[in-house]
């Protein structure tokens, strides 16, 4: 009897069901900024299903992606997620993923399979390894970076001229290619996976291409967002002054989506389409949640929703994710399941890739020492919370540290440093670097960044560029 009581107490602390093998549902968006969930911000966007997921679980309001080694930030983010390696270590591993990870059963899904999981995948992959060798079941893999678009999708719209591209016309292809919107296909695939007759616990990795451009949604959803409902971001700029040294010029594919200089009309149009494809994505997540809730698996399933990175959509005059402002590096992160308190929000900083060791711990696996990320289970078990600085990088052209609500952004090619107090200035509009207090703050943050560079195996020499910050 004593042993039984002790066992029940242990299970209560761990926050799992009686079986040590809960199901895991991972929902992954593409290009979705943290603000694009109504429950998480003051954005006027309709996301009722993500809002209900936030209400039934825990929100990590400050979840980050640490950057990328080329313009396709998604490749770096997904490689980190599936290998457990931080940015520059993931880059070093990229060319040998098949040999060093897939062949040795070291990817996220393969580690789950070792715990007896049926592993299922649908959607965007976009890594230098084959999903076929990683997952047991695959439906509708989208191996490329984005749906096909056309030249009419760029340098638009121009006020007073006919728009050459339609976000709701299936003739444009893109998300409509194949006859059904790709987000709807993933919701269908979840139903197929769920209906399988298999007694094993399952791990489902459902990777939406939405809301990546081309941002397409049914007309009835676009109609929910008349242009006069759309507000400009508070930090809107016609042109960002450091676009070239930060390697995000107008010639960069993402930045070419709208004409430069940016106009309120063009930015509002792009934000309207962004909101619409997210609301359509939210509806598909609602279908998935409804199917799960109607199944016997509902009470035994952990659900996590996040995105590979965020997106600037007019913030600071930028239209991509190749920058280190919060709109681009910060993502929504919601997790719900047995033992996770409902409606809880934490501001403690995490990396989105922390979900990988989190699910391994939930599955009863020993997290490999090679994994650089941290399990989030302590956050709802009442163990001491971690406090850490967040690192960010884009190629060799940008570096960032965010620590205790303060942020330093560096553009080494221009020898530019920018400092923000995010507690007082959440929109990152007031650069403090020119002030005495800002310079003192920059030196403290710079010391933290140098330490993070060493931890991250970041080879970029910042000391010679910024001797005044030493």
From TrEMBL:
UniProt entry keywords in alphabetical sequence: Calcium, Hydrolase, Metal-binding, Signal
PROSITE patterns, alphabetized: SULFATASE_2
Cofactor(s) listed: Ca(2+)
Domain Sulfatase N-terminal per the UniProt entry, residue ranges: 22-365
Region called Disordered, residue ranges: 142-169
GO MF: arylsulfatase activity; metal ion binding
Ranges of compositional bias, category Basic and acidic residues: 142-162
Keyword Cell wall biogenesis/degradation belongs to the record: no
Keyword Coiled coil: no
The family this protein is said to belong to: Belongs to the sulfatase family.
Protein name: Sulfatase-like hydrolase/transferase
Source organism: Haloferula rosea
Taxonomic lineage from the root: Bacteria, Pseudomonadati, Verrucomicrobiota, Verrucomicrobiia, Verrucomicrobiales
């Amino acid at each position: 009897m004593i042993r039984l009581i002790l066992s029940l107490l242990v299970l209560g602390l761990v926050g799992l069901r009686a079986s040590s093998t809960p199901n895991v549902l991972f929902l992954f968006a593409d290009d979705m900024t943290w603000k694009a969930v109504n429950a998480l911000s003051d954005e006027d966007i309709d996301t009722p299903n993500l809002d209900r997921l936030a209400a039934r679980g825990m929100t990590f309001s400050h979840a980050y992606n640490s950057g990328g080694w080329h313009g396709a930030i998604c490749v770096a983010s997904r490689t980190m997620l599936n290998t457990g390696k931080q940015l520059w270590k993931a880059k070093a591993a990229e060319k040998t993923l098949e040999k060093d990870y897939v062949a040795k059963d070291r990817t996220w899904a393969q580690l789950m399979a070792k715990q007896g999981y049926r592993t299922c995948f649908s959607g965007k992959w976009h890594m230098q390894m084959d999903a076929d060798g990683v997952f047991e079941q695959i439906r509708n893999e989208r191996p490329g970076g984005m749906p096909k678009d056309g030249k009419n999708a760029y340098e638009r719209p121009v006020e007073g001229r006919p728009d050459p591209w339609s976000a709701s016309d299936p003739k444009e292809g893109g998300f409509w290619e194949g006859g059904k919107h790709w987000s709807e296909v993933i919701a269908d695939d979840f139903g197929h996976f769920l209906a399988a007759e298999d007694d094993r616990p399952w791990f489902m990795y459902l990777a939406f291409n939405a809301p990546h451009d081309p941002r397409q949604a049914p007309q009835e959803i676009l109609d929910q967002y008349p242009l006069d409902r759309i507000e400009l971001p508070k930090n809107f700029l016609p042109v960002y002054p450091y676009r070239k040294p930060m390697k995000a010029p107008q010639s960069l594919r993402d930045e070419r989506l709208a004409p430069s200089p940016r106009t309120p009309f063009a930015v509002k149009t792009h934000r309207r389409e962004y909101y619409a494809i997210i609301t359509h994505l939210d509806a598909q997540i609602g279908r998935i949640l409804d199917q799960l809730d109607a199944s016997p698996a509902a009470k035994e399933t952990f659900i996590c929703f996040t995105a590979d990175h965020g997106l600037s959509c007019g913030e600071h005059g930028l239209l991509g994710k190749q920058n280190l402002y919060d709109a681009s590096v910060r993502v929504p992160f919601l997790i719900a399941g047995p033992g996770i308190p409902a409606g809880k929000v934490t501001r403690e900083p995490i990396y989105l890739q922390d979900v990988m060791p989190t699910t391994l711990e939930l599955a009863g696996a020993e997290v490999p020492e090679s994994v650089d990320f941290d399990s989030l289970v302590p956050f709802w078990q009442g163990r001491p919370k971690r406090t850490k600085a967040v690192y960010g990088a884009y190629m060799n052209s940008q570096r960032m540290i965010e620590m205790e609500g303060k942020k330093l952004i560096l553009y080494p090619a221009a020898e530019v440093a920018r400092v923000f107090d995010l507690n007082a200035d959440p929109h990152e509009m007031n650069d403090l670097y020119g002030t005495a207090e800002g310079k003192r703050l920059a030196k403290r943050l710079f010391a933290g960044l140098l330490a993070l560079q060493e931890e991250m195996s970041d080879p970029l020499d910042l000391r010679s560029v910024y001797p005044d910050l030493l």
